[in-house]
Specification:
Layout lengths: L7 E2 L3 H4 L4 H6 L8 H18 L12 E4 L2 E4 L2 H17 L5 E7 L1 H4 L6 E2 L1 E8 L4 E7 L13 H14 L5 E7 L10 E7 L2 H15 L5
Parallel strand pairs: 1-5, 7-8
Antiparallel strand pairs: 2-3, 4-6, 6-7, 8-9
Length: 216
């Protein structure tokens, strides 16, 4: 599913929450995608298809070629392994009674906080038995380690998921799955916090978003 890119996207929240002026300064400048980002897009597309079609598998996509944002990319064996690792991680977590959601458009919910907010969550799992909401972000890149703790992008995803699904969550876990990165904490890293913390976070986000439109 393709969702229009919001001016204040969750994926760039680490920048505009700390430097609100960067949004105005970058207006009108083309956002050129790299070949690495294009490969990540293809990996996400394959993963989403596998999660929504039980007949599909990463192995079936071996050798698939695509042109994304002007870059020619191919699903090679490394991509197959990376996507399979992501799928296996999700499968190992899901229990009977859980509800799962793939490629969740969070923009309508986030726009209730600020009209320029938006984002899409790769995977969301709701566990009624423990009232736990889990938001998983698949990072296919191999160049930069991404940590989940206090991660503004993941917190925005969690906030959007909470508002979108309207679940009585007590606890939220945000998860990074990064199969091509070696890390002392492993390739799957979690951060868990009380759901009520998102109330204060929502207020902070609204203020940060407002500041991006300050004339000074």
């Amino acid at each position: 599913m393709t969702v229009p890119h919001a001016r204040l996207s969750a994926s760039s929240a680490h920048r505009w929450t700390l430097c609100p002026g960067s949004v105005r300064l970058s207006d009108g400048i083309p956002n050129k995608s790299s070949a690495h980002a294009a490969a990540g897009t293809l990996a996400h597309e394959i993963a989403a298809r596998c999660l929504t079609d039980e007949r599909a598998s990463p192995q079936m996509c071996t050798g698939r070629k695509a042109e994304i944002d002007g870059h020619a990319v191919e699903c090679d064996l490394e991509m197959v392994d990376g996507v399979q690792f992501y799928l296996d991680t999700l499968d190992a977590d899901v229990q009977k009674g859980d509800q799962t959601f793939v490629e969740v458009d969070l923009t309508p919910a986030l726009e209730t906080i600020d009209p320029e907010l938006g984002g899409t969550a790769d995977f969301v799992r709701w566990r009624p038995s423990t009232k736990q909401l889990r938001v998983v972000d698949f990072k296919y890149g191999a160049g930069k380690v991404v940590e989940p703790t206090e991660n503004k992008q993941l917190m925005l995803y969690a906030l959007g998921a909470l508002l979108t699904l309207d679940k009585p969550a007590k606890e939220v876990t945000v998860t990074i799955v990064q199969p091509r990165i070696e890390h002392e904490d492993g390739r799957v890293r979690d951060w868990t916090f009380p759901a009520v913390d998102l109330i204060n976070f929502a207020a902070d986000v609204a203020e940060s978003a407002r500041r991006t439109r300050d004339s000074n």
